[in-house]
User: Fold this.
Amino acid sequence: MKSERPLTLVAGKGGVGKTTVSAALAVRAARSGERTLVVSTDPAHSLGDVLGVRLDHDPSAVEANLDAIEVDAERLAAAHVDQVTRALRDYAHPDTWPDIDRHMALAHNAPGTVEAALIDWLAELLDGVGRDYARIVLDTAPGGHTLRLLRLPESLGRWTDDLLDQQHRHDRLRVERGHDESLSERSRRIAERLQRRQTRLETVGRILTDAERCGALLVCSPERLPVLESVRLAGQLRQTGIEVAGCIVNGVFPDDDHDFIARRRGQQQRWIDELARRDPDLSLQALELRAEAPAGPDELAELIAFLRLCVRKTT
Assistant:
């Protein structure tokens, strides 16, 4: 399982241990000497609990070489709406400002606003890969939310392309109607702003789809719904162009002669086999169920050492 990329996206169904795995990967990278940032975009915000530190929207030092962030999506959305409102006011007649304010107030709670704000924030964050941080581990929200977020650079890029095209047609029409051939200051500012956004989205898209720089690591438990979700998610991530580095099956019962444990372990193994059968290209590793969930960097540092290969072939 290749996991030494500068950017690792940890994804999967809710409640399967994504945050714990993300934190463990980040601690391991930091203790190997790499300047590392672990970021949680999951609204559940349990990263600070796992690391044993208080986190907020800005980077907080956990230990040497390791910073962590719990993204405040509502704060991002509010700042995003405010930025767009100010930009629209710059280009619109003052008489229209009350209408703009009303529409943008409604936009704060519109579908996609949080994701659009988050992708803009991530664009700035990813720009620092290799400069501010050698490694970034992104603890993502549960499956569907993650896919919507990761597909945004492409869809927003097409939308920005359309706006740029409309702006160019508008400028050509001005020339055809006998206006000064030089672009107005307003037109130039609009075009420059759109072009900066387009460049930023293209950069995010390139990073996410570059297998040398980014890989998705799935986490699931060996049960029916998490396994089926992982199969779907792996396929959808690949369609988006994102490399799937592998899958950690978390919470596997140890081999034991006790009747209950042996039966549960047999049920789990059937779902591990089913995962391997449905996605034979997916590299699988297992983490055994622990008596207590790891907490704090020291316990997390030990966790990855307990990874072991799953049985890959079924008869």
Remarks:
- The radius of gyration is 23 Å.
- Residues 311-315 have pLDDT under 50 and may be disordered.
- The chain has ten helices and nine strands.
- Strands lie at 7-11, 36-40, 60-63, 66-70, 135-139, 214-220, 244-252, 284-288, 308-309.
